[in-house]
Amino acid sequence: MFARRVKNLERYQTQGEQLQRQVLTQLLQSAKDTEYGRNHLFGQAKDYDDFVKHTPLNTYEDIKYDIDRMRQGERDVLWPGRVKWYAKSSGTTNDKSKFIPVSSEGLKDIHYAGGYDSVALYLRNNPQSRIFDGRALILGGSHRPNYNLPGSLVGDLSAILIENINPLVNLVRVPKKKTALLSDFEIKRDRIAQEALYKNVTNISGVPSWMLSVLNRVMELSGKTHLEEVWPNLEVFFHGGVAFTPYRHQYEQLITSPNMHYMETYNASEGFFGLQDDPTDASMLLMLDYGVFYEFIETSPSPSEAGANGSEKVIPLWAVETGKNYAMVISTSCGLWRYVLGDTIRFTSTNPYKFVITGRTKSFINAFGEELIVDNAEQGLAFACEQTGAEVLEYTAAPVFMDANAKCRHQWLIEFAKAPADLQQFATLLDQRLQVLNSDYEAKRYKDITLQPLELIQARQGLFNDWLRQRGKLGGQNKVPRLSNNREQIEQLLALQK
After folding, report:
1. DSSP code at position 328
2. What confidence tens digit (pLDDT) does each residue in 225-265 have?
3. CA atoms of 496 and 498, how far apart (whole Å)
4. 20 to 30 Å CA-CA from 444: which of 9, 66, 219, 313?
5. Does the structure show a pLDDT above 70 at 403?
6. Residue among 339, 288, 336, 340 nearest 103 (CA)
7. Which residues, in sequence order, are CB contacts of 472 under 8 Å at separation 6+?
8. Dist. CA 3–CA 306, nearest whole Å
9. Distance between CA atoms of residues 359 and 344, nearest Å
10. Rounded Cα distance, 487 and 191, in Å
11. Is 483 strand, coil or helix?
12. Model confidence pLDDT, tens digit, residues 66-109
């Protein structure tokens, strides 16, 4: 069963353009009789050029009115029929949250397809695997009724997936469904740990930060030193949602078994886009035959709302080049059409199409022309940790535009799992590495003329969790924004630090 799918995935090597053109044709055919499809002539589109000619780029702001109509129960708006599920994700400038439609087709041919392929590729790379001999520990968020409409839900994508999963899967997973969908993460964390403690857990899936919190509670309850003493048959962590780099060392200390594997996935509320198919390569394989059609906007490392004004050059997948930074644009079987996702990636290969995530179109610092992106930050922190033995738990950074002495700098607020012996040394190493990684940052740091050395503030333990809790975002798929071009969130955190 899995072997047949792995064979099909070999088409990615040579048929990328063909697969994507087929996906677009299927999407347009499915949605041609929707309100959006009629307004944008989907039924008359013969190829990609026709689609682009009549369909504008969209941000969430452009379609939120249509989505709200769908949430109210209207049919055939962005996607055929009535869409009952909505994934709640971090908001826009004008709204606290976004509500991404998740159609039944999207569940099947995007989100669940990604989970299936994760297992298929893992088994290909590890034919001696015994993951089906035990349980899967899968973290999830919570959901609530959508406008009190019968059978309609809004919540974390993970909760929607758990709610709709094949009942047979519940026989091989922990925790039980009722626990998995609890809204209070602190209560849920304790119950998950208690329910999983004496099970034969062979694989775990979730966001690295929240999974680490659960695993630490398991260790507290068990009194053991390493996780393999609790779950001797644990062999793989399917992780996604945030970069794994800041957490890798902590996991390797917690799980010392040489049989442990890690597999990155790129899944979001809007879709499932990539899988790490080669454990020796940090790049991910772009999934080409799901219900997702991809386009890309070539961008400087720190764009504004990429694609929002329609002036940028948008290209299909078969026109991308390696080494360039692109903002992703997607059209999906959940009713998102030429939707500017907000993520940026860089292709490392076009045969097959493989990539690394470089950041978010809104997660960067470019206050002084330095164009610092998340990819730079992650690499810089990894270097400083390697040199000092430190371990980063959470972090965020923002510019200080001008202090009393007319000095400008970047301010980093870092919560350490293991603090460095010398904070100033860590800050210097991070600053120096960022200059190596980013020529614009290096230029602005030249002789301290534009930018002073970065400032590092050590966050108290639990600060970021307290901030998330205050915002009602503790647990689930919620994550801390890493870089910001303004000081709003870092000021909130600093206020809680006191």
Report:
1. E
2. 999 999 999 999 999 887 787 778 889 999 999 999 999 99
3. 5
4. 313
5. no
6. 336
7. none
8. 39
9. 5
10. 37
11. strand
12. 999 999 999 999 999 999 999 987 654 455 578 999 999 999 99
Task: Compute the distance between CA of residue 480 and CA of residue 37 in angstroms, rounded to an integer.
Answer: 36
The alpha carbon torsion through 43, 44, 46, 50 (nearest 10 deg) reads: -110
Given this model, what pLDDT does residue 88 score? 85
Residue recorded with tokens 């469904």: 177
pTM: 0.80
Q: CA 431, CA 376: separation in Å to the nearest integer?
A: 11
Give the pLDDT confidence score for residue 402 in this predicted structure. 66
Assign 389 to helix, strand or coil.
coil
**The tokens 């990636």 sit on which residue?**
345
pLDDT in tens, 127-184: 999 999 999 999 887 788 888 788 888 888 888 888 888 877 878 899 988 898 888 8
The sign of the torsion formed by the CA atoms of 219, 220, 224, 226 equals: positive
For 270-296, the DSSP string reads TEEEEE---TT---EEE--SSSEEEEE
Q: Which two tokens stand for residue 263?
A: 């597999």
The helix/strand/coil state of 127 is coil
Report helix, strand or coil for 416.
strand
Left, alpha or beta for 208 (phi > 0: left; psi -120 to 50: alpha)? alpha
Q: How far is CA 282 from CA 244, 262, 275, 474, in A?
A: 11, 11, 10, 28
The predicted pLDDT at position 305 comes to 43
Sheet holding 455-458, edge to edge: 391-400, 409-418, 455-458
